[in-house]
Amino acid sequence: MHAFSRRTILAAAAAALTLSFQATAARAEALDDIVKAGVIRIAVPQDFPPFGSVGTDLKPQGYDIDMAQLIADRLKVKLELVPVTSANRLPYLQTRKVDLVISSLGKNAEREKAIDFTSAYAPFFSGVFGPAKSAVKAAADLKGKTIGVTRGALEDLELTKIAPEGTDIKRFEDNNTTMTAFLSGQTELIATGNVVAAAIIARNPPNKPETKFIIKESPCYIGLNKNEPKLKAKVNEIIAAARADGALNRISLKWLGQPLTTDLPS
Amino acid sequence: MTYTFHFADVFAYGDLLLRGAWLTIQLSAVSTVLGLIVGILGALGRNSQHAPLRWLAGLYVELIRNTPFIVQLFFLYFGLAQIGVKMTANQAALLAMVINLGAYATEIVRAGIDAIARGQWEAGLSLAMTRWQVFRHVVLLPALQKIYPALTSQFIIVMLGSSVVSQISAEELTFAGNFIQSRNFRSFEVYFVITAIYLLLSLGFRQVFRLIGARVFRRA
């Protein structure tokens, strides 16, 4: 076997340095710092309605912003919103420029290596939506129904697989045309993301789309740095309480137009 | 260039391409026949002795020729559905094509009628034929013969323009192409094949029109 090359030694040194840095950082619990400072810094999106966008009063607004406010209120600290993009939201957290990321963040193995997640606070899914009077509950019920979908979108690919023979799938060029087809009554149902459905509901159409069934889901979680057990426990406690007392449901109704799905993973 | 062509990926969807091409042919053929009838009626209207008819035909021509086809299509499919007049995508596509072709054909046919010397009309009328009889037996065929090439071009334009109706989910040839492209992402191969099919269709339609023309105008 070769002796350690210079590169190996350097890498080992770097790793040791990182480890020791993480250890120092973890020593002071973020929750204690937040309470002491009286301020919590939360990364929110500003380019992803209805989760986060800039309102007509130029202030950030959305599901994530309300969620951030709820957490700050229940921690009894002031809220400092930090607008981020989906590309830089994790670096902001890892470099401790923010304490939490509430930015329609989905969980995956890759991210779980880098950061920690609380329980889910918002539903994010592709599904089939239709008016209240439609009795569709599962893919098998689609037989004989017309359903609009944006060609090539995830929903199109999935629906093509799961829809039974005899389903009239109408494929349109883009989300707007698909929405128009549903709103004008040319399709009975629409397969799309719950965010797009929220945009339809916001227009207050006569045929309000309701979730009939979910095709694929990836709920949103709050991101925080690793090794912050106190902060994680506290935020999870706040989410659980907000779900129990209906505060979270109110946020969901306000921004997604639908009550909170009951099966959000914790 | 290192790109490897995969035409087999496109021909795996052969039945979809065939069904798409067949719908394109059906839409084009039916709208050609109906559009020509609308065009002749429209031309009669524009040459009518009754001012309201002239005015109505003029309005129709100006309205359709000065608005985009896709807007007309969306109006028929989405707009009318909103107020309760529902058509399937194929019905809306056909109607839009007939209305569109009708407006252009009106002007083309009118040009043909105007090109018939006044003496022909007068000769017919002096034989105690009614205006309709003169139109039907003396004027119409020579008028159509004069503008037949222009009419043929317009038919082809409408056939090619039918690609737009994929926007309202009518599953014609372009829809088939877009669909296949969304599944295998082989844009070059897909659109190459679609282009070739449209070219063949155009040449085929042209040939058919030539044969029809040769037969119809034999006597004239």
What is this entry, summarized?
With 266 residues, chain A is an alpha/beta fold.
Description:
The complex is a heterodimer of chains A (266) and B (220). Chain A is of the alpha/beta class and 266 residues long. Helix content of chain A is 41%, strand content 26%. Chain A has helices spanning 6-27, 30-37, 63-75, 89-94, 109-114, 154-162, 175-183, 194-202, 229-244, 247-256; strands at 39-45, 47-48, 52-54, 60-61, 78-84, 100-106, 116-122, 125-130, 146-150, 168-172, 189-193, 210-217, 220-224. In chain A, the strands form three sheets. In chain A, strands 5-1-6-13-7 form a five-stranded mixed β-sheet. In chain A, strands 10-9-11-8-12 form a five-stranded mixed β-sheet, sandwiched between helices. A three-stranded antiparallel β-sheet of chain A has the order 2-3-4, with helices on one face. In chain A, helix 6 (154-162) links the parallel strand 9 (146-150) and strand 10. In chain A, helix 3 packs antiparallel against helix 10 (247-256). The radius of gyration of chain A is 22 Å and the shape is globular. With 220 residues, chain B is mainly α. Chain B has a single domain (9-219), classed as MetI-like fold (Orthogonal Bundle), CATH 1.10.3720.10. Helix content of chain B is 80%, strand content 0%. Chain B is built from nine helices and no strands. Chain B has helices at residues 7-11, 14-46, 51-65, 69-82, 89-114, 118-126, 131-161, 173-184, 187-216. The longest helix of chain B has 33 residues, at 14-46. Chain B is elongated. The A-B interface holds A 148, 151-152, 156-157, 170-173, 177, 180-181, 183-186 and B 77-79, 81-82, 86, 89, 166-169, 175, 178-179, 181-183.
